[in-house]
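Handout, tutorial session.
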Amino acid sequence: NEQTRLLTNGSPRALPLTTERLAQVDMDLAAEVAARLWGNANGLVLSVVGDFDQEQVRRLIETYVASLPSGNLDTVQDRGIRPVAGPVRSVIAQGSDNKAENTVFMVTDRPFRPNDRFAANTLREVLDIRLREVLRNQNGGTYDVGSQVSLSPYPYPQALVAFGFTSEPSRQAELTDKALGVLAAVAQGDFDQATLEKAKEIQVRSVESYLTQNNFWAAILPEYALKGYDLSQLTRLKELYQAVTREQVAQLAQETLRTKQALQVIRLPGPEVPKP
């Protein structure tokens, strides 16, 4: 996977498992590591969601979870895996559909602050709105553009920004340049208050929807535990999104939208690959 290769600089730890690589594994060591990890429940986060009797579930947890062996707490280790230095434009000839699949990544070392996630999710909506306006409405180039803004403390404090879209192969370079131009403009604070308010309103509506879904709770509770988020914030997510300021979003955009270091992966119908 070319995206994985760029994001991990080809680290052997991130390569897909093949029969050849499996043959190189020390099975005794693998069994030892597995026994150590699965034989230690210290740090285990178990989330139970759905329609159930709380007292009955509590008894089951006390019987089958609280009795698990507990040893030293394993901590996340930074193995030094980092993305390749950008800019990179990697073109892959693959498939027969007459379309280009365009994915762009930017990874930035950045201190992790838990409450930045509200500004990060708002920034993602700002990017989605502006990318749709430019690529779809103004240039008629695509119908399916979307972005991602992710902050993480592990394995090292980092911010990942990505966006992707499909287009006609002949317009791939043009539209990618326009998309990068959108991000560069947002990084300079070039988005109006109406766009910001619309982005915040989308987040508020999303909260109203996903707070009633079991799969949201099953995913969010372990994430809150892993990243050290304040669980009490789950009762006031709407007001936390409403409180996001333009200054917070603009600052985050400036710190993370490093378009000059972008990693691009372009999939074009093969076998002929146009030169950059």
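The second record follows below. Compare its token runs with those of the first.
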Amino acid sequence: SNVLGISDINSDFNCLIIDGFERESGSWRGSGNSFIIKYGNALGAKSISFESIKNYTLMDSLTSFSAYDFIFWILGDESSADETFSTYEQSLVKEYLENGGKFFVSGSQIGWDLVNNGSDEDKDFYNNYLKASFVSDNSSANLANGNTNGVLPYVSLKFGQVYDEDYPDIIEPFGGSNTCMIYSTGTVAGISYEGVFGTSSIYSKLIYLGFPPETTANTPQFNYMISLTIDFFNSPVSKVDDLNLEITGFELEQNYPNPFNPTTKIRFVIPSGVEGLSTLKIYDPIGREISTLLNNQISPGNYEVEFDASGLPSGVYFYKLNVSGENPENNFSKTKKMILIR
């Protein structure tokens, strides 16, 4: 039977793992799996508490998605015969993402099911809530690497080792998402997104992989991917404007309040047409790095991040925004001073 579990970690963050993998006649053959253990161990290493359920219990469950900071939904090679996301399941995911959810989903047949064989509603869900465009049913690859400018840099996952995965989906970013993983053949294996969903104004985050990462035998790399995912989900950066606004230039504003104790907010602007790795770091007066508030590729917009200096002594500190991309004309770097007073 399927292995399910719950952690005994006392954590500020709680995660729900949903095992949606019911297919018994595909690459994985059998009436049960133990993939929850892999995710549970990786989350435990980040001190994240978790619970797990099978997806078919959602109809009768008292589980409320709003109770969870993160949701991990694993689908393996689940396909059209068993449905990757039913209409009811789609409604749960939509509501979660429209209310500030942090959602990780993976599976090799999601695009094939929802787009190639799906209804108009399925396609809309795939485009506007999984933030992806379906390209092809077979990447002809069993290796995916993190995009160095994405949220999973330097991750390298050789998948299809626990069971043969012969049809991983090729996908493309859609609706403001970014590439986070690339197959060894050069096509897109995964996307990330941070922003709003539907008509909501609440900021949410998403990672969607077109292959099942739990099929790798490289546990350290799998754990590293989960660690970076949690870091991305926990990033304090939030968008404070409409993506449709025309933003013409970089800007790093003075923190407010300043002086501060112990928290302050920093606003910055990434202009339209700029793609690159953005970092926002805090330094002490002699140049030692104190904290990294941002380290990933983000879409153009007006952003705000909160810095908590609890535990730091009074004094002068510096914050630096750096943006670097393939086009040197779009590079930007600026540093400003702030004062912590106890």
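Points raised in discussion: The helical segments are 35-45, 87-97, 110-116, 120-128, 219-234.
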